[in-house]
């Protein structure tokens, strides 16, 4: 390309020496020569050399015509065509450059998108794993809740059964004993006459049947309840006799109840002697009422050892 | 002698009036370039529109010159053809340049979107 420019310049110089003084190159030719010099050093030389060569060939004809015949119409026509071809070479070069930019942008876009897709997939995968873990946890929690609910249902059913049992036992008990709710607890009062012979603390045979019913009622109570068996006498006789008698009677009842399945850790016996009569001891009926055994089922907040 | 001279003048006169024949293939090529430029939207690109018009005008001129027996008709047709090709090139350039700008914008948009 540089050789061509050199030969073009030599041609111009030669023309100037021989005939340039006589004829000035037409504007079209001057412009075409200038354009060629610029294009051959520009983008066209790299990207559209064929088009540039075509332009050079026409420019050479213009130069030849000018060299041989001066500023003729033919020279101007060739210069005009050469100028258009040079413009076309430049335009095509710029177009090619734009095409290359498009190709590069598309290629870069693909790379960016690929990276984004890769990252999105990774994020999606992580989210899936997280969801899987959460679902697993959720399933475990659901199972736990279901199990708890099931357990609660079982407990509820057991409680209802126990309550029904207790209600039944208390109802049966009410036929043989007085039952009274007091601040110290539920008090079951059994008459001494149905349990013991006079001045004795051995249980009568008939008493055992009744105590069996008491034992059932006690066993049906809540597990945390504690019970106290209290022995009471009338005021006849001295405390020296009455106190141990009441202790022994309470002990006999307690032992029997324990033998019928009442938890020994939850039931204790105490003798109250004649210290807590229900009524005054003036007549036989009142004294009979004062001779008694009370079983106190303490409320939960009092059921401490 | 006079007769021969008269014949020569007649022949020269006939030759002077003879139309210049533009090769059909040349004319077709020029007209095809004009049509091509129009099809790719040269009329909508100012620089291309100018050369398209020059191409059309020069084609008409070339035909008239050919009809008048002017030998320059072929060169004028060549000028027309070069203008038509330039119009076509300019129209294509405008279209491809728009595509390049769009591609760059698309790429920027994709990059800006970033990684989710």
Features:
A: 305 residues, alpha+beta, 2 domains, 10% strand, B: 116 residues, mainly alpha, Substrate Binding Domain Of Dnak, Chain:A, Domain 2, 82% helix
Query: What is the total tally of β strands of chain B?
Result: 0
Number of domains of chain B: 1
Given helix and strand content, the structural type of chain B is: mainly alpha
Task: Calculate Rg of chain B over CA atoms.
Answer: 24 Å
Question: If interface size is counted as residues with C-beta under 8 Å from the partner's C-beta, which chains form the largest one?
Answer: A-B, 29 and 28 residues
CATH class of chain B: Mainly Alpha
What is the averaged pLDDT score of chain B?
85
Walk me through this protein's architecture:
The complex is a heterodimer of chains A (305) and B (116). Chain A is of the alpha+beta class and 305 residues long. Helix content of chain A is 68%, strand content 10%. In chain A, strand 1 (178-182) and strand 2 (185-191) form a beta hairpin. The model of chain A is unreliable at 13-21 (pLDDT under 50). Chain B is mostly helical and 116 residues long. Chain B has a single domain (19-113), classed as Substrate Binding Domain Of Dnak, Chain:A, Domain 2, CATH 1.20.1270.390. Chain B has 4 helices and no strands. The chains are: A alpha+beta (305), B mainly alpha (116). The A-B interface holds A 73-74, 77-78, 80-81, 84-85, 87-88, 91-92, 94-95, 98-99, 101-102, 105-106, 108-109, 112-113, 115-116, 119-120, 123 and B 51, 72, 75-76, 78-79, 82-83, 85-86, 89-90, 92-93, 96-97, 99-100, 103-104, 106-107, 110-111, 113-116.
